[in-house]
C-alpha cells in the first residue's frame, strides 16, 4: 500500500490540529504542513483563546455542541496533565454578564464548561449596569504556546513543515494526493470562496496579574480574559475590515470599556495592541471537494471559516475534517475499475 | 499619640503575613473547634468591608483582589460557617473532582486575597496622611510606655505578646511557605486532612504577582529558619496537587509564626503604674486567620477605645457650680 501524501495548507490552529489528528487517525500517510505564516504571526496567535463558543447560524446546535465538547474534553485532558504549561492551556473562572435578561438563560454549552450556574445577587453587585449573569469555569488555550506545541507533535509523528506561499491549490499537484485547506481568509483566493470575510478584532494585551477572573459582556464586544502571562482586553467586531494596523483611538476606547467593568485595570501596564482578522462565514466550511482540471484530479478537504470560534471549536472540527480525509484515502486506495475501452 | 510596636517587626511581619495564606485569602478553612459568633461577625464584617473596596481603582494597590478556587476533602463534610460570607459558594461537580484524583469532595467559591506586604504599606500611607506617627523601637514593657504619659495602649504585638505580659494560652504556630512564579494558576487550591490537622495539608494560593505554596503548621516551634524537610513536604504536596508546578520558578521561601490562641484576646485591661491607671486594649492571638477577621477586630477595638474616651470625659466633667 503506497503512502498517501497529504498537504495541509495553513499553519494556524486549524492546519496544525488537523495535521495532528490525521497523523493519529489515518494510517499510511505522510503529512506536510505548508504555510507562508507560522506562529506567532497567525490569527490564532492574536485570539485570546477562551473556550466560550459563538453560535453559527447555519449549523445545527447539536453539531456545534459536539464540536465544542470534543474541543473542551481534549484541552481539559491537557490542562490536567503536566503538559498544560507547555501547551498554553489554563483553567479560568469568571462571569458572562448581561444588561438585560436573555431569552435563553441557559446556553447550549452550559454542561460542557465546569460548574455553570447563574450569578447570585451579591455577585452581580460588582456590575451595577448588568442585571443577569453566568458564572462558570472554562479553559483558555493560547496560540503562542499551543501552536508550537502542536508543531512539535506534527514533527514528532514524522510530519514536515514547509514555509511557502501557495497561490493556487493546483501547485500541490501531483506532489500530493490530498489537500487539506485550512487557509482561513486565504480561501477567498485559494478556494474562490466569496462567502468568507474578515471581522476585524483589535485587542490590548496588558500586564495586570491581579486579575484572576474573566469578565465578558454578553454582547461579546467587551471582555477581559486573564491569560498565562498577560490579560487580553477587547474588543471590536468590524465586518469587512482588512486593516491589520492597530488604531490608537480604538485602543483607548477598549481600555475605557474594560475599566468600566474592572476599575483596577487603570493600573494595567505594558499595554500592547494587536489586530486579528476573524475568518468569518455563516458556517464553518467542512466538506470534501474534488478539483478537476482536464484529466487531473485533486481531492480537497476544506476546513476553515470558524469566525470567532476557532479555538473553541478547533479539535471537534479537526476530528471531522480527519474523517473526511479518511474517506478520501479510502477512495484513493480502492482498486481502480479497469477501463473497458 | 499612640506608640506602635508593630513597626519594629515590619521586616518579619511583611513576610509572616505572606505566610498566612489561608488568612490572606480571607476565608479560613474550617477550624476543628467551632468558631464563636463573635469571630463569625468579625469575618463577615471584614469580608464585606474588603468587598466594598473591590471596584475601586486602588484595589490592587492595596493588595486586594477577588480570587476563586477549590477546597478539597477526602470525604463529605458539612458546609462551612462562612459559606454565606463568601461569594458563589457551591459544592464541586464530579468533573471538577476529576481534576484532583486524591480527593472526593469539595467546594468552589469566590473569595478575596489580601496581600500583607502591600496592605501594610497602604495602611501605613493612610495613617501617615492622618498624622499618625511611627516609631521604630523595641518596647520592653507596658510600664515603660505608660510612664511616658501614654493614656491608652493598644497591644497588637501578635505572637510576641508574651514578652510584654505572660500569656500561657498564646503559642507560635510555625509555618513555612514557598513563593513561586506560576502566573498560569488562577485559582486557590486548599486541601484538608482532618487527621493531620489544619494548615498541615498542601495549599496553593495565587497572589497578586507570585503564588504561595504551603502546608506546614508546627505548634510551639520558634524556629525562624527554613528547613529542608518542610520544603520537601510543601513541594511534593503541592506538585502532587498541581503537576504544572514543576515548571514554576521558586522565588523565595519564608518561615513565620501564626499567633495561635484558643480564642483571640480582644479586651480591655487597666494597669496601674505608680499613681495612674493606664488603659490597655489587647488585640492579638488571631492564629492563621488574622487578615480574615482583622477589620472586624479593629472596629471592636475602636468601640472599646470610644468607651474609654467616654469614661475619661465623664471623669473630667468640672464640678457643678450649683
Automatic annotation (TrEMBL), chain A:
<dbReference type="InterPro" id="IPR023209">
    <property type="entry name" value="DAO"/>
</dbReference>
<dbReference type="Pfam" id="PF01266">
    <property type="entry name" value="DAO"/>
</dbReference>
<feature type="domain" description="FAD dependent oxidoreductase">
    <location>
        <begin position="5"/>
        <end position="323"/>
    </location>
</feature>
<keyword id="KW-0560">Oxidoreductase</keyword>
<comment type="function">
    <text>Selectively catalyzes the oxidative deamination of acidic amino acids. Suppresses the level of D-aspartate in the brain, an amino acid that can act as an agonist for glutamate receptors. Protects the organism from the toxicity of D-amino acids. May also function in the intestine.</text>
</comment>
<comment type="similarity">
    <text>Belongs to the DAMOX/DASOX family.</text>
</comment>
<dbReference type="GO" id="GO:0005829">
    <property type="term" value="C:cytosol"/>
</dbReference>
<dbReference type="GO" id="GO:0019478">
    <property type="term" value="P:D-amino acid catabolic process"/>
</dbReference>
<dbReference type="GO" id="GO:0006533">
    <property type="term" value="P:L-aspartate catabolic process"/>
</dbReference>
<protein>
    <recommendedName>
        <fullName>D-aspartate oxidase</fullName>
        <ecNumber>1.4.3.1</ecNumber>
    </recommendedName>
</protein>
<feature type="binding site">
    <location>
        <position position="278"/>
    </location>
    <ligand>
        <name>D-dopa</name>
    </ligand>
</feature>
<dbReference type="InterPro" id="IPR006181">
    <property type="entry name" value="D-amino_acid_oxidase_CS"/>
</dbReference>
<dbReference type="InterPro" id="IPR006076">
    <property type="entry name" value="FAD-dep_OxRdtase"/>
</dbReference>
<keyword id="KW-0576">Peroxisome</keyword>
<dbReference type="GO" id="GO:0071949">
    <property type="term" value="F:FAD binding"/>
</dbReference>
<keyword id="KW-0274">FAD</keyword>
<dbReference type="GO" id="GO:0008445">
    <property type="term" value="F:D-aspartate oxidase activity"/>
</dbReference>
<keyword id="KW-0963">Cytoplasm</keyword>
<dbReference type="GO" id="GO:0005782">
    <property type="term" value="C:peroxisomal matrix"/>
</dbReference>
<feature type="binding site">
    <location>
        <begin position="43"/>
        <end position="44"/>
    </location>
    <ligand>
        <name>FAD</name>
    </ligand>
</feature>
<feature type="binding site">
    <location>
        <position position="223"/>
    </location>
    <ligand>
        <name>D-dopa</name>
    </ligand>
</feature>
<keyword id="KW-0285">Flavoprotein</keyword>
TrEMBL record, chain B:
<comment type="similarity">
    <text>Belongs to the DAMOX/DASOX family.</text>
</comment>
<feature type="binding site">
    <location>
        <position position="258"/>
    </location>
    <ligand>
        <name>D-dopa</name>
    </ligand>
</feature>
<keyword id="KW-0770">Synapse</keyword>
<feature type="binding site">
    <location>
        <begin position="287"/>
        <end position="292"/>
    </location>
    <ligand>
        <name>FAD</name>
    </ligand>
</feature>
<dbReference type="GO" id="GO:0071949">
    <property type="term" value="F:FAD binding"/>
</dbReference>
<keyword id="KW-0285">Flavoprotein</keyword>
<keyword id="KW-0966">Cell projection</keyword>
<dbReference type="GO" id="GO:0003884">
    <property type="term" value="F:D-amino-acid oxidase activity"/>
</dbReference>
<dbReference type="GO" id="GO:0005829">
    <property type="term" value="C:cytosol"/>
</dbReference>
<feature type="binding site">
    <location>
        <position position="203"/>
    </location>
    <ligand>
        <name>D-dopa</name>
    </ligand>
</feature>
<dbReference type="GO" id="GO:0048786">
    <property type="term" value="C:presynaptic active zone"/>
</dbReference>
<dbReference type="InterPro" id="IPR023209">
    <property type="entry name" value="DAO"/>
</dbReference>
<dbReference type="GO" id="GO:0055130">
    <property type="term" value="P:D-alanine catabolic process"/>
</dbReference>
<keyword id="KW-0560">Oxidoreductase</keyword>
<keyword id="KW-0576">Peroxisome</keyword>
<dbReference type="GO" id="GO:0005576">
    <property type="term" value="C:extracellular region"/>
</dbReference>
<feature type="binding site">
    <location>
        <position position="157"/>
    </location>
    <ligand>
        <name>FAD</name>
    </ligand>
</feature>
<keyword id="KW-0964">Secreted</keyword>
<dbReference type="GO" id="GO:0006562">
    <property type="term" value="P:L-proline catabolic process"/>
</dbReference>
<protein>
    <recommendedName>
        <fullName>D-amino-acid oxidase</fullName>
        <ecNumber>1.4.3.3</ecNumber>
    </recommendedName>
</protein>
<dbReference type="InterPro" id="IPR006076">
    <property type="entry name" value="FAD-dep_OxRdtase"/>
</dbReference>
<feature type="binding site">
    <location>
        <position position="288"/>
    </location>
    <ligand>
        <name>D-dopa</name>
    </ligand>
</feature>
Amino acid at each position: 500500500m503506497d503512502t498517501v501524501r497529504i498537504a495541509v495548507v495553513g499553519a494556524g490552529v486549524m492546519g496544525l490540529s488537523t495535521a495532528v489528528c490525521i497523523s493519529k487517525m489515518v494510517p499510511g500517510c505522510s503529512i506536510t504542513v505548508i504555510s507562508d505564516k507560522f506562529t506567532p504571526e497567525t490569527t490564532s496567535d492574536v485570539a485570546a483563546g477562551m473556550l466560550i463558543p459563538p453560535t453559527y447560524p447555519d449549523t445545527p446546535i447539536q453539531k456545534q455542541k459536539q464540536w465544542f465538547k470534543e474541543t473542551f474534553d481534549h484541552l481539559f485532558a491537557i490542562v490536567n496533565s503536566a503538559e498544560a504549561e507547555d501547551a498554553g492551556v489554563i483553567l479560568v473562572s469568571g462571569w458572562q454578564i448581561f444588561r438585560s435578561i436573555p431569552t435563553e438563560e441557559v446556553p447550549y454549552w452550559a454542561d460542557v464548561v465546569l460548574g455553570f450556574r447563574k450569578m447570585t445577587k451579591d455577585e452581580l453587585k460588582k456590575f451595577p449596569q448588568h442585571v443577569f449573569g453566568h458564572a462558570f469555569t472554562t479553559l483558555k488555550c493560547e496560540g503562542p504556546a499551543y501552536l508550537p506545541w502542536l508543531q512539535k507533535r506534527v514533527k514528532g509523528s514524522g510530519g514536515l513543515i514547509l514555509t511557502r506561499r501557495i497561490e493556487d491549490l493546483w501547485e500541490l499537484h501531483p506532489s500530493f494526493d490530498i489537500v487539506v485547506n485550512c487557509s482561513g481568509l486565504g480561501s477567498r483566493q485559494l478556494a474562490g470562496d466569496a462567502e468568507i470575510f474578515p471581522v476585524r478584532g483589535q485587542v490590548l494585551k496588558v500586564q495586570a496579574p491581579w486579575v484572576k477572573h474573566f469578565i465578558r459582556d454578553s454582547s461579546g464586544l467587551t471582555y477581559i480574559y486573564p491569560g498565562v502571562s498577560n490579560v487580553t482586553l477587547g474588543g471590536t467586531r468590524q465586518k469587512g475590515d482588512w486593516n491589520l494596523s492597530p488604531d490608537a483611538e480604538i485602543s483607548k476606547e477598549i481600555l475605557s470599556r474594560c475599566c468600566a467593568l474592572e476599575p483596577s485595570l487603570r493600573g494595567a501596564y505594558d499595554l500592547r495592541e494587536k489586530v486579528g482578522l476573524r475568518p468569518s462565514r455563516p458556517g464553518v466550511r467542512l466538506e470534501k471537494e474534488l478539483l478537476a482540471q482536464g484529466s487531473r484530479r485533486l481531492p480537497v478537504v476544506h476546513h476553515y471559516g470558524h469566525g470567532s470560534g476557532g479555538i473553541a471549536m478547533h479539535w471537534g472540527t479537526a476530528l471531522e475534517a480527519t474523517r473526511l480525509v479518511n474517506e478520501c484515502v479510502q477512495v484513493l486506495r480502492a482498486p481502480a475499475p479497469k477501463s473497458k475501452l | 499619640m499612640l506608640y506602635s510596636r508593630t513597626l519594629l517587626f515590619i521586616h518579619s511581619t511583611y513576610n509572616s503575613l505572606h505566610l498566612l495564606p489561608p488568612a490572606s485569602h480571607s476565608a479560613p478553612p474550617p477550624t476543628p473547634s467551632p468558631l464563636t459568633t463573635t469571630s463569625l461577625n468579625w469575618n463577615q464584617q471584614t469580608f464585606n468591608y474588603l468587598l466594598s473596596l473591590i471596584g475601586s481603582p486602588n484595589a490592587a494597590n492595596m493588595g486586594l483582589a477577588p480570587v476563586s478556587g477549590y477546597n478539597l476533602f477526602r470525604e463529605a463534610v458539612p458546609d462551612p460557617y462562612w459559606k454565606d460570607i463568601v461569594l458563589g459558594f457551591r459544592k464541586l461537580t464530579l468533573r471538577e473532582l476529576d481534576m484532583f484524583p486524591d480527593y472526593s469532595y469539595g467546594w468552589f467559591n469566590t473569595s478575596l486575597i489580601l496581600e500583607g506586604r502591600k496592605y501594610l504599606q497602604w495602611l501605613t500611607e493612610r495613617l501617615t496622611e492622618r498624622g499618625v506617627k511611627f516609631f521604630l523601637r523595641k518596647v520592653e514593657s507596658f510600664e515603660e510606655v505608660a510612664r511616658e504619659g501614654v493614656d491608652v495602649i493598644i497591644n497588637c504585638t501578635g505572637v510576641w505578646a508574651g514578652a510584654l505580659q505572660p500569656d500561657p494560652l498564646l503559642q507560635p504556630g510555625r509555618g513555612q511557605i514557598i513563593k513561586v512564579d506560576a502566573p498560569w494558576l488562577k485559582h486557590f487550591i486548599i486541601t484538608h486532612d482532618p487527621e493531620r490537622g489544619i494548615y498541615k495539608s498542601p495549599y496553593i494560593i495565587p497572589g497578586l504577582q507570585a503564588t504561595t505554596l504551603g502546608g506546614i503548621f508546627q505548634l510551639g516551634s520558634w524556629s525562624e529558619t527554613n528547613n529542608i524537610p518542610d520544603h520537601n513536604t510543601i513541594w511534593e504536596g503541592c506538585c502532587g496537587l498541581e503537576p504544572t508546578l514543576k515548571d514554576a520558578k521558586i522565588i523565595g521561601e519564608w518561615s513565620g509564626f501564626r499567633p495561635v490562641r484558643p480564642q483571640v484576646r480582644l479586651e480591655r485591661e487597666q494597669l496601674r503604674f505608680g499613681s495612674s491607671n493606664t488603659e490597655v486594649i489587647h488585640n492579638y492571638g488571631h492564629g492563621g486567620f488574622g487578615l480574615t477577621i482583622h477589620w472586624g477586630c479593629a472596629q471592636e477595638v475602636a468601640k472599646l477605645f470610644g468607651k474609654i474616651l467616654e469614661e475619661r470625659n465623664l471623669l473630667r466633667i468640672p464640678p457643678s457650680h450649683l
